[in-house]
Amino acid sequence: MPGDIAENEWAISGTPVDCVVIALQKIVKEPIDLVVSGINAGQNMGEDVLYSGTVAAAVEASLFGLKAIALSINAYKDQVFETGTRWFIKLLECGIDQLAKPHEVLNINFPNIPFEDVKGVRLTRTGHRKYYNFITMIEEQEDSFSYRIGGDLPQWDFEAGTDSEAISEGYVSITPLGFELSKGNAFPGVLSWLEENHLLET
Fold this sequence. Notes:
Blueprint: E1 2-6, E2 9-12, H1 16-27, E3 35-41, H2 53-63, E4 68-73, H3 81-93, E5 105-110, E6 120-123, E7 128-130, E8 135-140, E9 145-149, E10 155-157, H4 163-168, E11 171-177, H5 187-196
Parallel strand pairs: 3-4, 4-5, 6-11
Antiparallel strand pairs: 1-2, 5-11, 7-10, 8-9
Helix pairs in contact: 1-2
């Protein structure tokens, strides 16, 4: 449920995507220059971008044809938000909003270190991570069980050029995300299978 808490300030009870949809279709009447989602308390790197509400809110805005940026900081507790805030202001002053394009998202992650310790900024691709002991069993019965998702911290593959490598070395990571979901190089194999099985014939 949206609530007006101050002039031009709203609080919305819902997911980050809900907030974007309500803002764009009900609340905001003026043209929008840029949608900023975050700073999220916890990184959104590697495969986590597929699950992230912070990234999803930026994606939703981009699908409306707006420029969108997602911001996250690499810590689940004791976040140094000043680092992310000051670096994002610096990036805005350098014109990063002009790099943002409709139907794309700039995904920015900040290392959780003091502002002056950040070494710089890297252009990165999404890396890879694995979670271990991700399900915590709370209670088990004969025919059911209760559980909680969440456990050990992710184990990152620090490949060269990835978001996780940049963050581990004290850099801000900028990863442009796109949403062309069809995998073109898989088409020949699927097409051959269709032909071999005469499934293209009508």
